[in-house]
Specification:
Strand content: 5-15%
Shape: elongated
Distance between the termini: 90 Å
Strand order of the largest sheet: 8-7-5-9-10-11
Number of helices: 30
Helix content: 40-55%
Radius of gyration: 35 Å
Oligomer: single chain
CATH architecture of one domain: 3-Layer(aba) Sandwich
CATH class of one domain: Alpha Beta
């Protein structure tokens, strides 16, 4: 029935073919067909004519309210719904629709009144129970919301909607309880296999649970229903990126880009992926694109600051981090730049950080400096890298303890190694310390010791060697492999999987030009990840003793037996420095703070020579510099073949 059909019914009525009621019924059927086909304007025209002839036609008013709710101004439906409720105060559809519109207008209190009135007269109405539950979630009244949603699941056990809403409730009330959220969404999917939103939320919970394959399965199910939904494509890209499938993730993000109304967000995710791929130039351009589209988008400023820092543009990086001021790590990144350039004394920053931490968390059991008159002093090492612990533990022997017993609280993997350091008589595992009675002991932190000892400007006392392996412990490798007349060089690489940043990978293959040199025996110290890598070592005439290194104390003993170490920024570098063993440390353009910035030697380890990248993520320059050093200082030669 077209929008002229209602006029035609007048002539039909004159011919006694239809009654007015039949004409209205036929017109309303036409309205329903128009709405089902998405022809909202055509439906509105017919409804206007019906309501002109019969202003109180309840069916027409219901349809007109629906038309209004579909428009750009859904609040226009409210006076229509009010008129319906004037005639029928407990009309189910009108009360539900009014509540839904009021929620959309961010008036949950008024919406709640509408839903409660409905349920007063229809206590088991399915939509009313679900809508009131959703409304109470919006108001953060989670216990009340759960009560109504559980009633809905009890009264309508085959309905997936209340189970889905219980999942949403759990996201809001227990954001860390991912398993509980997931269980609700999976139950909803059991009842309604094509429940797209449930698949999306199940996938989000699975990503947080690190179950990426299952997450991708649910996102693919969602894409079957909404193949052009940019948010689903975006979420799938994030899940693929978590699986390290970076190229596949890029494809998803690029598919989402032309479809998304939030292009700055998609640009940001593409930039994040390019960063992980090591393409800093592409990442920087996309971060800039993101902030160009959304000037207040702080995550992109943080990403841009990261890229600028890692390409050596430290002043610009600090400005970008300042623009990302509410990002939780931005302030720390600025301080990290200040530390590495020594614009600020690191010991002052460490003190400020821990004083701030104590002021926020009174239950943290450590002092900045030992102050109590207790018999025991415990030194914690929370949040420190292995290298930082080895570096700062040299200070333990200098503490005036007033006859206190000093115990270092350390992670389990370092427990044996740390007791090889001069001045460390006792060490316990962090988990053991949690059970300690803290009444009559003094607790400090290893970061605190430089300040406690009055050190300034990042300086540490120069101690030539302050660690030694256990002489009584039997080693598993053949000692003849690392002894004799040959010059033995230990190699330690990094298989982090990161293509950029201070912890970026330094793969074994980067060392191959060194292995072609004559005049030395090369010893592999890092774990070999597969038989192919082990075979490659053998082909290069390198000795692999990594399988005989049981723990970090074994590594210390192996380093001591060698003549020279060539390594990335690993624990091996710190052990060599603490032993005063000659060591060549290959560093990224932006290393960790303790290697400082651009210096060729270390102020902390006199035996170390620092060779740095000149371009981000490019190891060619430090490797070539190492070759020159081996030729000129140690007398090695290049293979002439």
């Amino acid at each position: 029935m077209s929008d002229t059909d209602l006029n035609n019914t007048n002539s039909a009525e004159n011919n006694n073919e239809f009654s007015p009621e039949e004409a209205f019924d036929e017109a309303l059927e036409a309205v329903e067909l128009h709405l089902e086909s998405g022809r909202v304007q055509s439906a509105a025209k017919i409804l206007n004519k019906i309501l002109t002839l019969d202003p109180d036609n309840i069916s027409a008013l219901k349809f007109m309210a629906k038309v209004a709710s579909l428009s750009k101004s859904p609040h226009a439906a409210l006076p229509i719904l009010a008129k319906i409720l004037q005639h029928d105060p407990v009309n189910l559809d009108a009360l539900n629709d009014r509540g839904a519109i009021l929620m959309g207008l961010d008036d949950p209190e008024a919406a709640e009144l509408s839903f409660r009135k409905l349920l007063k007269h229809h206590p088991h109405d399915r939509d009313g129970l679900n809508n009131l539950g959703t409304n109470l979630i919006q108001q953060k009244r989670f216990d009340e919301a759960e009560e109504f949603l559980l009633t809905a699941t009890d009264k309508w056990p085959s309905d997936a909607t209340p189970l889905y809403n219980l999942g949403v409730l759990t996201i809001n009330s227990e954001p860390r309880n991912n398993q509980k959220q997931l269980n609700y969404f999976l139950k909803a999917i059991e009842l309604k296999p094509n429940y797209t939103d449930a698949h999306i939320n199940a996938a989000n919970a699975l990503v947080r649970l690190k179950e990426f394959d299952k997450a991708i399965y649910h996102l693919d199910r969602a894409l079957l229903q909404r193949p052009t939904d940019p948010n689903i494509l975006l979420n799938k890209g994030i899940a693929l990126r978590e699986k390290k499938l970076l190229v596949e993730a890029l494809d998803c993000f690029k598919g989402a880009l032309p479809l998304s109304p939030n292009k700055h967000h998609v640009d940001y995710e593409i930039a994040q992926t390019q960063y992980l791929l090591g393409d800093l130039k592409a990442a920087a351009a996309l971060y800039v694109s993101a902030v160009s589209n959304q000037a207040t988008f702080e995550p992109a400023y943080f990403g841009l600051g990261t890229v600028l820092a890692e390409t050596g543009q430290l002043a610009k990086a600090k400005e970008a981090f300042k623009r990302a001021k509410s990002h939780p790590a931005a302030r720390h990144r600025i301080k990290a730049i200040d530390i590495i350039t020594r614009d600020v004394d690191p010991w002052i920053i460490f003190r400020e950080e821990y004083e701030a931490l104590r002021s926020r968390h009174e239950d943290i059991n450590f002092n900045w400096t030992p102050q109590k008159k207790a018999k025991e002093l415990f030194i914690r090492t929370d949040n420190m890298s292995d290298g930082e612990i080895i570096l700062l533990s040299r200070l333990i022997q200098q503490i005036n303890t007033e006859s206190k017993t000093i115990t270092l609280v350390i992670r389990k993997s370092l427990l044996t190694l740390i007791q090889c350091i001069d001045g460390v008589d006792n060490a316990i595992c962090s988990n053991t310390f949690k059970d300690k009675n803290l009444t009559d002991i003094d607790v400090t932190h290893l970061y605190a010791l430089p300040s406690f000892l009055g050190l300034k400007n990042g300086n540490l006392p120069e101690i030539i060697a302050y660690i030694k392996p256990d002489r009584e412990r039997k080693r598993l490798w053949d000692t003849q492999l690392v002894k004799g007349n040959q010059f033995n060089i230990g190699l330690s690489w990094i298989d982090s999987g990161l293509r950029t940043g201070p912890n970026q990978e330094l793969k074994f293959r980067e060392f191959e030009p060194l292995l072609e040199m004559q005049g030395a025996s090369f010893i592999g110290l890092s774990n070999t990840t597969n038989e192919l890598q082990r075979g490659h070592l053998r082909d290069m005439d390198a000795v692999d003793i990594s399988e005989f290194i049981r723990d970090k104390e074994d590594l210390l003993a192996a380093v001591e037996e060698l003549d020279l170490i060539i390594t990335g920024d690993t624990l091996t570098a710190h052990l060599a420095g603490a032993l005063n063993k000659p060591v060549i440390v290959l560093l990224p353009l932006l290393p960790h703070w303790l290697w400082e910035y651009k210096a060729r030697s270390s102020s902390y380890y006199p035996s170390a020579i620092l060779l740095r990248q000149s371009k981000a993520n490019d190891w060619q320059r430090p490797i070539m510099a190492a070759i020159d050093l081996l030729k000129n200082k140690y007398g090695l030669s290049l293979n002439s073949l």
